[in-house]
Design goal:
single chain, mainly alpha, two-stranded antiparallel sheet, two-stranded antiparallel ribbon, 7 helices, globular
Length: 271
């Protein structure tokens, strides 16, 4: 039994090492492209089973996302990225549960011991994968925020002059928000990596001790964990995108509202 925290390199393209987790992520991307292309080409008035299944999942995800954003237009703006992250993470989590993943490979001698080098490893069990995905998620929130509010307006919430009321407090709060944006990368990457890597270790240990019956309940548990982690990653991405595109300390007036000087928005009185 060999437990490796880092992904194992299989071969190199020039000076670039290709690890077993990177290979799995390429397989996941290829699978998503093939399924997406097939569904797009087969769009018809009378859809088939695959198109029905995909449309049902997307419609359910759209309705759920509407509850977060509160606006279908905003949902449609974020949905391609959020849905892609969900399916990408879900497949990256589940592919490590397939027969042969982590158990089929070649033996090599390392530090005098004979260990197994698996051909496949769950992409989410590699910290490089989760870190890159976290950077995409948090970076997208900054880009969407700057596009919606303007670059200067967006970054003003992080860098508040100390002479602006309430004196000094706004500056401190802005710096805290900036630190929280950086902390999202660490939180995203380690949460996903820790859950999936721990699940792989658990299945490996149980499969070594009792290889036939003991891993079965843990296998179903890891299927559920993989789904939950994909949902959490996609949902938090959607929440961060929604928050980033909303102006702080202001709200939109409803039609028919009037603004009185020094007073909050109030509606005209009717007789």
């Amino acid at each position: 039994m060999n437990i490796s925290l880092a992904a194992e390199p299989l071969f190199q393209i020039g000076s670039f090492p290709v690890t077993n987790s990177l290979l799995v992520s390429w397989v996941v991307v290829l699978f998503m492209v093939v399924i997406g292309s097939r569904v797009a080409r087969s769009s018809a008035a009378v859809p088939g089973r695959l198109q029905n299944a995909v449309e049902a999942m997307l419609e359910a995800m759209l309705n759920f996302a509407d509850n977060v954003t509160g606006d279908r237009r905003k949902t449609l703006k974020f949905f391609p990225l959020v849905a892609s992250i969900f399916f990408f993470v879900l497949l990256a989590n589940w592919i490590g549960l397939l027969p042969g993943a982590g158990s089929v490979g070649i033996f090599e001698v390392h530090e005098g011991e004979k260990i197994l080098l698996p051909f496949l490893r769950a992409a989410s069990a590699d910290l490089n994968f989760t870190l890159a995905l976290a950077l995409v998620s948090v970076g997208a929130a900054q880009i969407y925020g700057m596009r919606a509010l303007g670059t200067l307006v967006y970054w003003k919430k992080f860098f508040v002059p100390p002479w602006r009321e309430p004196y000094g407090i706004g500056t401190f709060v802005g710096l805290l928000e900036l630190v929280s944006e950086l902390a999202k990368v660490i939180s995203f990457s380690f949460r996903l990596f820790g859950n999936i890597f721990a699940g792989e270790v658990l299945l490996l240990v149980m499969g070594t001790l009792l290889p036939y019956l003991a891993p079965i309940p843990f296998l179903f548990m890891e299927i559920f964990v993989g789904l939950v982690q994909a949902m959490v990653f996609a949902l938090l991405t959607l929440v961060f995108l929604t928050i980033a595109t909303e102006s702080h300390g202001s709200h939109e007036a409803e039609p028919g509202d009037r603004i009185s000087h020094g007073d909050p928005i109030s509606k005209p009185q009717t007789a």
